Amino acid sequence: MIKVANLQKSYGDFQALRGISFEVPRGQIVGFLGPNGAGKTTTMKILTCFMSPTAGSVTVDGHDVYDNPVEVRKKIGYLPESTPLYSDMIVYDYLQYVAEMREIPKSRRHDRIATITRQCGATKFIGQEIGTLSKGQKQRVGLAQAMIHEPQILILDEPTSGLDPNQIVEIRTLIKEVGKNHTIILSTHNLPEVLQTCDRLLIIHQGNIVADGTPAELEASAAREARVLLQVAQPENSPMDQDAARHRLSRITHVHSVAVAPGAGKSIRFEIQSDIGTDVRPDIFNLAVDEGWTVVELRRDSLDLEGIFRKLTQAV
Ligand code: ATP
Asked: Are 308 and 280 members of one domain?
């Protein structure tokens, strides 16, 4: 449904997007995740025809955003990061105005506004001035304007930013509901948001896609990199021969690297990497018993999604 190929965008000398590629099939809710300045908004603006790329292409249902923006705009609803709502307008009048812009026939506008405000939970304040609405209510109006022309795709730029915890839950629930019959790309730097709302994660960092998969797939790939951490207390009067200990650990079958680091207090910490899919903890335990080491800690250290995100998006 959406095909992004080698998309690049430069602002002057600065390359904000460095050739990103991904595809989104119909009906998927994709979380576009990245730290501040990663390139999320830039990508969304190109997808929604608000900005042209420097190189590469984006097609929506086969229509190129550059060559055929009119067709693309019909298929896409966009909720920008700061929704341009006119604060002195009544919600109903504003949606009438958007419906007119979207060329919905006059005879259908009233019914369409009634349907979409019901769907977005905005009926209660349809007669209220936009400037008097809470942030959560404004976001509902923003979603209603994005969906008024019945697009198949919704692009939502940080839809819960600035909302209080209750409003966040309400808007996430609404997005999940809407996602049952729409394709959605939503940008965020909030990991729980993605886990609770999305089928798939795309992690972007410094203009590159650095991860792409379901939350379970990303967690599984991190688990394959699992390390074992061993912390051994040093006897008071006879310090441990760290090199010898490291050598013995590295001779355990499947172990391919052992790093030594200071542990808590006087203890020593070994970070042991082994072949994918192996568990070397029993052998480490047996070695520690044979050597008379006082083991303070022996555990597997696998990354959770928070760890994966941090690892992939640390500034270089
Ligand atoms: P945030 O989470 O903070 O909204 P983002 O991932 O949406 O960040 P973008 O807004 O796409 O990031 O910005 C990507 C990079 O491009 C940033 O370094 C930003 O400063 C830069 N940038 C964006 N717009 C412009 C512009 N009009 N002129 C120059 N640089 C820009």
From this structure: yes
Separation of alpha carbons 139 and 120, rounded Å:
9
Task: List pocket residues of ligand 1, CB cut-off 6 Å.
Answer: 11, 14, 16, 34, 36-42, 189
- The rounded distance, in Å, linking the Cα atoms of 78 and 89 is 20
- 76 with 208, same domain: the answer is yes
Closest to 90 measured CA to CA, from 57, 120, 117: 117
Å from CA of 132 to ligand 1 middle: 30
Q: Domain check: are 199 and 251 in the same one?
A: no
User: Ligand 1, residues 8, 10, 11, 190: which to mutate, most atoms within 8 A of Cβ?
Assistant: 11
- Residue 8 belongs to some domain of the structure: yes
CATH code for the domain in which residue 178 is found: 3.40.50.300
Q: Give CA angle at 159 (158, 160), nearest 5°.
A: 95
CA distances from 161 to 23, 167, 171, 207 (A): 26, 10, 10, 21
For the chain, percent of residues with pLDDT exceeding 90: 64
Question: Residues 243, 248, 253, CA angle at the centre, nearest 5°?
Answer: 140
Q: Are residues 171 and 75 in the same domain?
A: yes
Q: Which domain holds residue 264?
A: 224-314
| Other C-beta atoms lying within 10 Å of the C-beta of residue 174 | 18
The helix (run of H) or strand (run of E) holding residue 243 is helix 242-250
Q: What is the pLDDT of residues 221-261, one digit of tens each?
A: 766 666 899 999 988 777 888 999 999 999 999 998 899 98
